[in-house]
Amino acid sequence: MQRSQTWLALAGIVLLAGGVWLGQTARAASVPHDETAKKAIEAPTPPSYGALEGRALFEYYCSTCHGKEGHGDGFNSYNLDPRPRDLSDPAFQAKRSDKDLASVIRSGGGFAGLSNTMPPWGHTLNERQIGYLVQFLRTLKAQPKDGTE
Amino acid sequence: MKPEDKLSSDRLWLWFAIVSVVFLVVLAISPVKDYFREYRHYQKEYQRRLLANAGSSKQLKQARGFAVGVRQIWLRDYEDRVDRCTTCHLGVDEPQMANAPQPFRVHPVTPHTPQSFDRFGCVSCHRGQGRATTRDEAHGNVADWSSPLLPLEYTEASCGTCHQGVKVPEATQLSAGRALIHKVGCYGCHKLAGGENWQSLAPDLDGLAEKTTPGWLRAWLHDPRALRPNTWMPSFRLSKDDIDALVAYLWVQPPQRPLEGLVPKDLPEGDADRGKTLFRESRCISCHTVEGRGNGSAPELMGVGSSVNRRWLVGFVGDPQAFQPETRMPRFEFSRQDLLDISQYFSEELSTVDGPAAGLPFHPPQTLVDRGAEVYQRYGCGGCHKITGKHGSKIGPDLTGIGSKPAGLLDFGKRSDLPRRLPDWLAAKVTSPRSFRDGLKMPVFGFNAVQTREIVTALLSYTGEKIPEQYRVAATISHYSPPGQFGKLVRRFHCQSCHQIQGTGGDISTAPLTAEGSKVKEDWLRQYLQVPTAIRPILTDRMIVLGMKPDEAAFIAHFIKNVYVNDAIPGEIFPDGVPPEEAARGKRLFFERYGCQACHEVQGSGGYYGPPLNDTPKKLVSGWVAWWLRDPQKWRADVRCPNYGMDATDARDLAAYLVSLPTATAPTGED
């Protein structure tokens, strides 16, 4: 009887140890997971597809007037009155919401009370493409002020 | 019961107890392991964000009801693929997660998302291991997983697994890369998808002895870009000995069309000034570049006066196809004097001072010629260039399926600096191909960073994967060749080098001829073919002046007017003259409502982006004008003139205004 009790105790200890070990390995395994997860969450934003497509559309449809970098200096801008504005200007960028920008691209300048020489693109480009253009506009770099740089 | 029996039954109980406990423990391992799974961490974090963002009681209820568990997309008609990426990437279709960090951020809007996650899943675009539920395994950063996650900057490659044409909508980088592969001629050496219709633009190499000098050829083979910065002929980094041998070999190839009997040996001097005027008036820079101006679709001509001898130029410009049967250059109807003057202009003004002197007699020994033949073979020159009677072959490795080659099968050679990833390997291969090991033959193309990314994207798109029929978007290939006498003229003037007819032809001109007959008036067309007025004055690539004879121009105009028509386009819509009130309303619409003057010049003012519209009455069919205005992209999908969404009345009134504009000179009728 005594022997069987010893056996039982022994088995109990072994199981307990096994349980603790299992729990620890699982916990240990989960720690680096937390870390990779943390790293994954903090990873920097990759270059955006929308801005890339937006640049191509902008160069194709818009740059003749607005200029390749949105500075309002495309070759046809000199025939326009009023001249196209500098889209990269931080003050302009801050003033206009994405919705505003999309709306002028879609419905044209006349629709927004601006110049009618800015045509509406809503029947030529789809909503996705207008979205790409807005994303691209947000990547425009302000012109360096002359003399500085 | 004997005492021994009792003892043995006690033991049995004991063993039974132990086995039961062990069994329980084993059973517990799986739930315990599951409890500690990585994805649960993400899901709990996601739920926390949902709760924090919940703005309505409905959203709050949804957030509270968020169930932890594996999520998957099952593509039944795409090889029964299963993607479990959404187990962690929980916010892909949740606009609330626009600014959330990964893995929760909403998927950007693309042609297939958010509406078609269920049709395409994740792996078909991003690659990786769809069934896995840990980050490392799912992203394929594990040994033996052949298809790791595609770096985001190359994702457009995946558009190309289903979309097989060169131009893929809303995949700019991929389209640019595929076009580049065609242009630089990767297909000359490599077997690769998409090359079925590739045609080399490299010149035939017959009869170089009549064309150039050994010195120029040497300099060219040494470094083509030094002579013509815009050429796509790559640098093969040949040794001096190889260059000498190659020059010798090329030197002895007989011409397809000997100059003997065609152009006299001693050419009289021409008038360079007149030649320059002819060069300008014929609009050669619509294709050739001179002094930085030109479209770049044909060789740069700076230095041509010293690289190509004048006698050959006279012969070639007079009849290009006789020398290069597959050239895109048309035959201009130049007179003998024109040719003398143009070639004089080349020798006087388009030659470099330190250019190689006129050809001295050069008779290379046969041994050198034989060695040159071997060099020609070794570097696969025949992949792009032709020599009559000799067959080139693709000497580079077969690149079928290169886009999905496992990194473990790639030869990194000396490049221990590179990450063991396919995109990095490809980028290094196309930028510095000789850096992998000694003795490699691939030339250096000098791609910049953007071109490298484009070309790697395109290469990654050729996975060799078999795509289910319902997913495949095949390339549209058309081979239209105009018939009969008209066809003969079209081929002689090489109209299709620039213009598309029924989808076949070059893209130098933006004007397809498929329905030209519905667009223009016959008289205007006939005159235009003889003396093309500048439709878009600011473009460098304008309609060239071919010197068509009056009867040829009349024949072509008549044929186009009667055959290249689209029945959906109305003809003249003002048979009884234009009602003045419609024209007056059209004028107001033109300037005040639609702002057409932003791009078009009318009566001396306006933009110069679109064509000036002053000659509309002589040129365009009124019905076409109204038809075009309602949807310009119906004419050609990439037309830049926007569709204003105007109604039929506005379009008609605008057409009324335009076709009643006062014309400067009355149509001459006969010339």
What does the model show?
The complex is a heterodimer of chains A (149) and B (671). Chain A has 149 residues and is mainly α. Chain A has two domains: 2-42; 49-137, Orthogonal Bundle (Cytochrome Bc1 Complex, Chain D, domain 2), CATH 1.10.760.10. Chain A has five helices and no strands. The radius of gyration of chain A is 31 Å and the shape is rod-shaped. With 671 residues, chain B is mostly helical. Helix content of chain B is 40%, strand content 1%. Chain B contains 29 helices and four strands. In chain B, the strands form two sheets. Chain B has a two-stranded antiparallel ribbon with strand order 1-2. A two-stranded antiparallel ribbon of chain B has the order 3-4. In chain B, strand 3 (601-602) and strand 4 (605-606) form a beta hairpin.
Entry summary:
The complex is a heterodimer of chains A (149) and B (671). Chain A has 149 residues and is an all-alpha fold.
Identify the notable features of this structure and list them briefly:
heterodimer, A: 149 residues, mainly alpha, Cytochrome Bc1 Complex, Chain D, domain 2, 2 domains, rod-shaped, B: 671 residues, two-stranded antiparallel sheet, two-stranded antiparallel ribbon, disordered C terminus
